[in-house]
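In this section we walk through a basic example: taking a raw amino acid sequence and producing a predicted 3D structure, encoded as discrete structure tokens. The instruction is simple. Fold the sequence below.
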Amino acid sequence: MDYKISGDNLQLVTIQLSPNEKVFAEAGSMVYMSGNINMEAKLRGGLLKGIGRKFMGETMFLTEFTTAGGEGMVSFGGTVPGTLQVLEIREGNHWMVQKDAFVVAEDSVEMSVGFQRKLGSIFFGGEGFILQKLSGKGKVFIHACGDFVEFDLQPDQILKVDTGSVVGWEDTVDFDIQRVKGIKTMFLGGEGLFLTTLKGPGKVIIQSMNIANLASALAPFMPHQNTSGSSNGIVGTLVKESLGR
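The resulting token sequence is shown next.
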């Protein structure tokens, strides 16, 4: 399977499919495709796995793409400004990724629900209780907000990361949450009360910005309605000026 990732911070991955190849993708991630591509919604893995995906906040059905009459082309993108990256999934080794990261994968890859193993990670980890587990063999394309930074941790090597900034990690990596030391640092340091701790060996991918921080930064500039029903912010100001109010 040939592919090309294009763009800077609004990236697309374009995949060239042969007649014997198939990929499956998150519903709504397809951007464009050639006329000989067939797509079909499938309940991959049966009803239980479909319910598991619904439990993650995703759609129960995934969309499969195949070609009819020669090679075909299909392109996919993420839902927020950010980066796409390919993961090579190997037999006997799987990846855990945040629940909105999956975009598209080869047919030989299996996607299922994964869970945080440690209590602290469940309640204080920005990645949440439910994750996506990627196993099998083949290429998977993931997406997240901002740019990606990849680390290949050595045995017992530790990386501490802002909670919510971890995109994914190999199953050999130990994932935990630790409280920030020092009362003054906890409340005045601006980095939150907890940090994600990743211990090698294994690969880790983090993102330069997460969607929660992006939403918080944009919130003061977004229009909103007050109790009288009028809209505040830039839009509200323009409306009031046009009405002479």
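Looking at the output, two observations stand out. The chain has one domain: 2-214. The longest strand covers residues 82-89. In the next section we compare this with other chains.
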